Amino acid sequence: MLDILRRIVQDINATRDLSEALNLIVVEVKAAIHTDVCSVYMTDHTRGEHVLMATDGLRPGAVGKVRLKLGQGLTGLAATRAEPVNVDNAPAHPAFRYIAATGEAPFRGFIGVPIVRRRKVFGVLVSQQREQRKYTADEESFLVTLAAQLAGCINQAEIRQALERLDDDALSGTLFLEGVASARGLAIGEAVVVFPATALDRVPDKDIDDPEAEASRFRQAVAAELAELQRLSERMRLLLAAGDRALFDAYGLLLSSDSLVNGTLERIIAGNWAPGALRATVLEYANIFAEMDDPYLRERAADILDLGQRLLDRLQEEQVVNRHYPDHTILMGEEISVSQLLDVPPEKLKGLVSVRGTGTSHVALLARGLGVPAVFGVSNLPPGRLNGREVAVDGYTVRVCIQPSSALRQEYLKLIAEEAELSRGLQHLRDLPAETLDEHRLELHANSGLFADIAAARNSGVQGVGLYRSELHFFLRDRFPGEEEQATIYTRVLRIMEPHPVVLRTLDVGGDKPLPYFPISEQNPFLGWRGIRISLDQPDLFKTQLRAMLRAGAVYPNLAILFPMIGGVGELSEALDLLRCSEVELREDGVPVRTPRVGIMVEVPSAVYQIDRLVRMVDFVSVGSNDLTQYLLAVDRNNDRVAKLYDPLHPAVLLAIRQVVEGGQAAGKPVGVCGEMAGDPASALLLMAMGVDSLSMNLGSLLKIKWMIRSIRYEATQDVLAEAMRMDNAAAIREHANTFLDQQGLSSLLRVGK
Ligand code: PEP
Ligand code: MG
User: Fold this and answer.
1) Which of 50, 362, 445, 736 is catalytic?
2) In this model, does residue 454 exceed pLDDT 80?
3) Which residues on adjacent β-strands are paired with residue 353?
4) How far does residue 322's CA lie from ligand 1's centre (Å)?
5) In the chain, is it the N or the C terminus that has fewer CB atoms within a 10 Å radius of its CB?
6) All domains of the chain, ordered by start, with CATH?
């Protein structure tokens, strides 16, 4: 059954539109469970109907015509209950409804399985049998498993269909796709799709101007691969038996055969670029082989895919170097890496869209740092088909609009201009303090990690850098940077910001931030070896970093050091010991170090409960609300499936932060917040009301938050907080805080993303 299931899903993914996909489903399912009828009803929520969309066994003329009211008949019952309805004699069931148009009178056995995705019923998969038949538990599970997979496939097929409509009539169509998280802001530009260098099935189609040149590029790749196979075969002669070497000969034969090479060339001549043409041809042939009855021939499908991959790698070697970025680039992909993002010249990068990831993934933080609007977790985005299309990124509604109509384009351009206007209008706040109308002050700091944003921070009137993510420099290298190299970086950062404080966070890798040259393979990376745990286990690396920081601090006095992921007193003592040890050693080496201010991040729940002890050991505390939320709510901050559950305004998170603030106050030590919530108006309002001393955020949010603070009375925020702390869910708390901001005339702050 598993094989059949896999094949059906694979076949559906290869279809071009929804109706082809549905027709294929009904035929294949009917054959798989040996039944008389298989049909798919799709639920049209706007009209309140289940519509028969495909059938194998009922009258073909009924397709599109038979419409059941929501909940009507046994099909409707499966949809309303969102569970399978399996009855051996349908007409005897009280919910049965006779519909003449389907010609279904003679059918008795009935099973309807809802097609559900993310809590929403998309339709019902129905099988029927002329005689009485109770579908077995195995058959029911098969249909349930298939339906669960179909929801995603149907959604994809719908998107593909919508894209084709856009191709037919570029101006009238508009396709919106929703994400789960964003970096706020609006952008419009041309999609540039990036993909992992090795994924053949994810290569996009792309139009080309010079098919002849592309064809010759492909021929060269084939010739080079043939020569390489020849060479490999020769070399293996000494190592492998003849039978084992047959693979190379088979590959050589495949490459010399007309089908694969000519099929690709034909597609290139028709206007597709070589990688896209290769993908289409290879998948077509691999599918043919995969369906063969002979097990030996079926196995050859894997060889074809492998060979296709090798050819693609060859084609991509030059492609990577030659990537062209248009002036308004919207970077798009299944998953965008930090280096792919940094590969785009900053002045050209206008937006970012990715299938995976959430608002607190590393690349999202970087996008925010650079002020680039982004939408993440667009699970039904088909990047392969979007290269070169115009795309609008709306980080406020967390949506992407593919090929906006001219009216919509105008609307987006107007909003983008308004945004720029608002931010210009806030410039006069640059050098004013973040102080409420009744003179309560707090400090606003910037989150940073690159030279580009640190220079911008200096010019935007911030009172310091509250979080410098030192690991970003580690990502941009192919090995650990040495003490000298790091000292140069940190000195430069301190010099740019002087006399304002700079909080350098020690290396925080692991979790979602593995270093390419320090691979960590774990089942549960967020609960594994990350942050300070790595630093303590690798004192060599840790001390190199601490020495580099201290050397920078010897030149400029504005250094503070922050330890990430502290989980308890023991870890903090060890980290402090190593810091002291580095200080002593440097002094012994003749470096005149100053003892810096030292702080901890509170992002592990255990640190909340030990805050009274921990805070006495350091000079300040910084709440890392991104991780604290993830760990308190047990919601992976990078998993778009559970992104709806991730909300730092959850009452439990607010209670934890309040406890930390109270702990800091009792010990007379300042408490700041440097997670993403610091830059969100509703959250910042509540944090200020709790009495945090500083908020550290990306620069894009800074003046807006300052504007908010300067427009309200601290006294009034106390009531808002008191009421919020009595509420039992994040949505109500956000609504409550936003209503207050609205009443204060700050509604233009409220176009908030997720
Ligand atoms: C946090 O966890 O809130 C934080 C600021 O650290 P990072 O996002 O880099 O993990
Ligand atoms: Mg963190």
Assistant:
1) 362
2) no
3) 332, 375
4) 35
5) N
6) 2-171 (3.30.450.40), 175-194+323-402 (3.50.30.10), 200-315 (1.10.274.10), 470-602 (3.20.20.60), 619-754 (3.20.20.60)
